[in-house]
Prior knowledge:
The protein contains 2 helices and no strands. The chain has 67 residues and is mostly helical. It has a domain at 31-67. The longest helix has 30 residues, at 33-62.
Amino acid sequence: MSTISAATGDQTAVAAANANAQQLPSTGDQDSTKLVMLGLGVTIMDAVLAYGMIRRKREHEDSRSLY
C-alpha cells in the first residue's frame, strides 16, 4: 500500500510542476510602434533611392549619342 501512496504523491508533484510550467513569461508586452515606424521609414527611403538610381541610369542610357 505504501507504493500506491508514493505513486499518488509523485502524480501530485508532477501535476503541480505542470501547473507552474504552463505559466509562460510575459515578454513582448511593450508597444513597438517606434520600431515599426523606423522600419517603415527605412523601407520607404530605400525604395525612393532605388527608384532614383534606376531613373538616373535610364536617363544616362538615353542621352548617349548614336555616333
